[in-house]
Amino acid sequence: MTTDTAKPHVFDATTANFEADVLQKSLETPVLVDFWAEWCGPCKTLGPILEKLAGEYNGAFVLAKVDVDKEQELGAAFQVRSIPTVFLVKGGQLVDGFPGALPEGQLREFLKHHGIEPAAAAPAQEAPETEAPVIDPHAEVVRLRSEVATHPDDDNLKLDLAVALLKTGAAHEAEQLLDALPANLAHDDRAVRARSRLGFAALLDNAPPVEVLEAAIASNPDDLRARHLLGVQRIVAGESQAGLEQFIEMLRRDRGFEDGLPRKSLIDAFRIVEDEDLVGTYRRRMSSLLF
After folding, report:
1. Do the beta carbons of residue 197 and residue 166 sit within 8 Å?
2. Residue 144 sits in which domain range?
3. HSE (CB half, 13 Å, CA atoms) of 3?
4. Is residue 164 situated within a structural domain?
């Protein structure tokens, strides 16, 4: 029951590709993880139905096939006791699952329950855009202030200004602009990322200075509350690697701290940090600690 190029939304998941192809992919697209084996009769019933739905749903979810005989480490990580067993991973987290071979109708209901509906056929691929040059955020603020003054009714310009202001540390003014955006722009990717950065900044209300947090960690490396606040400080200040390092260290010391705060902080930070290579590095480190 191996996959092939004729099934673009179905692939074989392994320990080696699990972080990139399942966890990281699930931040954008839900991933169904099907634990199966060649000798399993019910697997031969469920597997073709799942593959059929993956094709029919046209990328609304992807199907990751895990051969438990070949990938025993993954089976142990997910505590698989019987096969077939299917898990749904969304946003980098396991959110639901079921054992056994469900009929097609129940599978569709399971997907619908989690907001997964068939997607329309993908449009023809557009030519890749040329990479935009790096722009000084302070200069961009000056330019956008002038543009907004000239076009005061252009909400897109105001969103651009809010994003630029955040990059200069002007969180209060940026928040006022974001709060005034109409509903259609409030869910724009730029607005969502800006809100995430503001959410981090809000965690620092009444927080101790950086020097105090560093001293607390030096005296007690297991002070995970101090590590969390220091990580947030670093992310908000644009010191992305230093912030991610604090969150990774939290995860290494106690992954369950405050109901999974280390992992949640990493995932939130991944939505803010724009350096894709840096994010990829820390996603792999997170995966190695979790699995």
Report:
1. yes
2. 137-202
3. 23
4. yes
Q: What single-letter amino acid sits at 217?
A: I
CA distances from 39 to 116, 162, 193, 194, 243 (A): 30, 57, 46, 50, 47
Say which CATH number the domain at 95 has. Answer: 3.40.30.10
- Among candidate residues 23, 31, 43, 194, the one labeled active-site is 43
The question of whether 181 is a catalytic residue gets the answer no
Question: Tens digits of per-residue pLDDT, 118-142?
Answer: 876 545 455 455 454 556 768 888 9
Q: Do both 141 and 182 map to the same domain?
A: yes
Together in a domain, 158 and 240: no
Active-site residue (options: 40, 116, 157, 286): 40
Among residues 113, 147, 176, the one where a domain terminates is: 113
Is 167 contained in some domain? yes
Concatenating the DSSP letter of every residue in 22-53 gives IIIHHTTS-EEEEEE-TT-HHHHHHHHHHHHH
Q: What is the pLDDT of residues 21-70, one digit of tens each?
A: 999 999 999 999 999 999 999 999 999 999 999 999 998 999 999 999 99
Q: Does 84 sit behind a cis peptide bond, omega within 30 degrees of 0 on the bond before it? A: yes
Is 0.70 topped by the overall pTM?
no
* Per-residue tokens: 154: 């252009």
In single-letter form, the type of residue at position 198 comes to L
- Sequential DSSP letters for 93-160: EEEEEEES---HHHHHHHHHHTT--PPPPPPPPPPPPPPPPP--HHHHHHHHHHHHHH-TT-HHHHHH
Query: What is the domain-level CATH number for residue 242?
Result: 1.25.40.10
**Measured in Å, how far apart are the chain's first and last C-alpha atoms?**
25
18 is catalytic: no
Domain assignment present for 86: yes
Residue at which a domain ends, from 174, 202, 230: 202
